[in-house]
Design goal:
Strand content: over 45%
Largest sheet: 8 strands, antiparallel, barrel
Order of helices and strands: HEEEEEEEEE
Helix content: 10-25%
Distance between the termini: 39 Å
Structural class: mainly beta
Amino acid sequence: MKKAVLLVLVALVAVSSAFAFEFRSIGLETGTGFYASVDMEIIDNLDVYARVGTNGYFSFSVGAQYKVYDFEVQGTTIDIRPGAQMNFSFGDNVFDFSFLGTCQFSFETGNFGAFVRPLIGVDVYHWSYRYGGEKYSDTDTNFAIGIETGVYYRF
């Protein structure tokens, strides 16, 4: 549990230092849960994002992505942004942490945009409860895979 607290503290420091940079967009996301998100640009083509929402429990995420390539399809530019994301979820005697590699495909029309973000990585899940004076708990590590989608408004 000490490692989980340390990971949360590192993530909070990273997110708080990112708020010193320029906000790029706000949005709504779905896929591995339902989230409200903000995206900040640190340097050209490098973005960090933070999300808060639910995946059955209270959840927040931080991630970073770097634009490596774009291509055009019938006049619409599609960006390719590989990156990494950390998810933290808390609930009644539950803690869930995921570290995921991502690759976001996005496009914009005016100030609005949309994306699809496949992700793959590892998930660590811990739960515990008491029943009849006995304590039950389990920690499990799993392979994680998913697809997130979202829409956003770019400033």
